[in-house]
Amino acid sequence: MSEALVEVRNLTMHFDIHAGILRRKVGAVRAVDGLSFDIMQGETLGLVGESGCGKSTTGRAILRLYDPTDGSVKIDGVDIASLNTSDLRKARPQMQMIFQDPQASLNPRMNVSEIIAEPLREHTKMDSAARDARVRELMDAVGLNRAFASRYPHEFSGGQRQRIGIARALALNPKFIVCDEPIAALDVSIQAQVVNLLEDLQRELGLTYLFISHDLSMVRHLATRVAVMYLGKIVELAPRDALYSDPHHPYTQALLSAVPVADPEVEATRKQIILEGDVPSPAKPPEGCNFCTRCPKVMDICRKVSPEFREHAPGRFSACHLMDE
Amino acid sequence: MFAFTIRRLLFAIPTLLAISFIIFAILDLAPSDPTGNLPLTIPPEVRAQIRSSLGLDEPFPIRYALWLNQFFINEPLNMIEGWTGWTIGDGERLRVTSWATRSPVVDLIVERMPQTLWVVGMSQIIAILIAVPIGVISAYKQYSWFDQIGTFVSMLGFSIPTFFTGLVFIVLFSVHLKWFPSIYDTNHVIDSWSSFVFQIKQMIMPTMVLALATAAQLSRYMRASMLDNLQQDYVRTARAKGLSERVVVTIHVLRNSMIPVVTVIALNVPTIFGGAIITEQIFRVNGIGQLLIIGIQGADIPLVQTLTFIFAVLIVMFNLIADVLYGILDPRIRYE
């Protein structure tokens, strides 16, 4: 495999809980708890998991939109997690993010060309003519009509707004883009267009994606490798085909069994793994394995010892005691 | 937007006519007597004569029609004559005249306006200058010491009435420290540096009393609006673009947060012209607010009627201006 562009080591993001009259710290939400993984040059790593498992927090912490509690994130050899603010700003052009809600993530008082040109103004010495030319070029690249440059975000449809968000992210030729559920807020008919656009851009510009989603079939279409998150931890990371055909971790198995099959005859007889109970609170994760409260294959050791996340077969990482046997 | 403005202006005409009628009716129903302040030795027949000479014998609809004629036709014509030097018609027409002073009400207002604009207008400007930075910093550092103190002070500003802060100011700064005069001298002429300094000195207390009350209110609006916007996704986008915090806060957050605050400010403008009745009274600023009080005390119906109606016009106008400003500042809002 090619070289790692992004190296995440022991990334931890805890949000303190303050309560009481004096607002003392009474605990912490362990939104992201000790993640370690690499993202290879030019690949798309899919990050899946249910709502609230820490996917988006991971994406934001990697780009240092949050200050991580612990751990390091090296992008192209530079540790983003420990940069000071001015160096961080200089590092921003190479890493960008496409946000989930294309309506809320665009400033309502700026028109499209202002939105796309703002990073250029901040980070390059282009004159206004060069900026305009670049804005036009980017609008072409994402399939927006150039004539719309002076329109405001609210005048566009959801899919078009997401294209604005993509053009904005591309403005400074980033190497690495975190796509934080970029299609979750879009119509199904528009989702495919945006996903295809992301694929085309990746091919043309050699981009590396971290694609965060809860849509397992979309991740299967787009990702080269897939990481599955549960309660702040990655439980399994494997190449796409291997993960979908032979999931190792019981949680991945349950998650994949929830994807409906298009053939009604298969669907009627298919055995689904139904998980009992709710996800524990990330403020009070269970002792031992995070999944032990709901795992259908739970063993005694799972309630005591947290399984280590390690490579059990070439390229296949998981955190489960079943694999350690 | 243009069509919207015109339509709203047309709608304002029946609204204002209804308002003027209601004001006139209320004043007419009030059991006040323009001769009530005259010495008790004046016999009732003479009082009746005075009342009839003021036109109070006429039935209500006729008095109302006469006022409408004087205010909407005679006064504007008179103003045009005054500005251009033309003579329209014979130039002899009945103006709205104060019963107490026998001088035209409009002239009284023009006389009083500069004091009110100076003191109350300046207080609004100072309030904005105080409130915006406080609101911005309070929101940016929510629950910090600065925010807590700011919240406490604006609670004080909200809950303590100006007649109390005014008196406290006078006791403190005039009586004890002797820094500022407690009475505003309207006859003061500014012709030198020292007289200018004196003007500033006599303006400080009434201006600050009003500014603190207004700033308390505005800073809360500003803070709330900033907090709303700081949590928006586009702020995260701005940070992800690698903009400096200063640019994120001033260009992105502040500009969006100013939208509701600007409309609050616009709606506050009529109070500038309306004067601050209580504060003007405390510091003896003979502005519009004081004129209104004197008019009410003396049952000077034409004066009160005209002043109140002018306030109503200003309020209707600035409501419209606030709406139009909203449409200009927020591209998402378009009026058909």
UniProtKB/TrEMBL annotation, chain A:
Single GO MF descriptor: ATP binding
One GO process term, biological-process aspect: transmembrane transport
The keyword ATP-binding is assigned to this record: yes
Subcellular location: Cell inner membrane
Coiled-coil segments on the chain, per record: none
Domain ABC transporter: 6-256
One GO CC annotation: plasma membrane
Chief site of localization: membrane
PROSITE patterns documented for this protein: ABC_TRANSPORTER_1, ABC_TRANSPORTER_2
Membrane topology per record: Peripheral membrane protein
Gene3D superfamilies named among the record's database cross-references: P-loop containing nucleotide triphosphate hydrolases
Keywords attached to this entry: ATP-binding, Nucleotide-binding, Transport
Protein family membership: Belongs to the ABC transporter superfamily.
Name under which the protein is recorded: Oligopeptide transport system ATP-binding protein
Organism: Pontivivens marinum
UniProtKB/TrEMBL annotation, chain B:
Mode of membrane association: Multi-pass membrane protein
Any single GO BP term: transmembrane transport
Keyword Glycosyltransferase: no
Keyword annotations from UniProtKB, A to Z: Cell membrane, Membrane, Transmembrane, Transmembrane helix, Transport
UniProt family annotation: Belongs to the binding-protein-dependent transport system permease family.
Domain of life per record: Bacteria
UniProt keyword Membrane, yes or no: yes
GO cellular component term, pick one: plasma membrane
Name used for this protein in its record: Peptide/nickel transport system permease protein
UniProt-listed SUPFAM superfamilies: MetI-like
One Pfam family hit: BPD_transp_1
Bilayer-crossing regions: 9-30, 117-140, 152-176, 196-216, 261-283, 303-329
Domain ABC transmembrane type-1 as annotated: residue spans: 113-322
Location within or outside the cell: Cell membrane
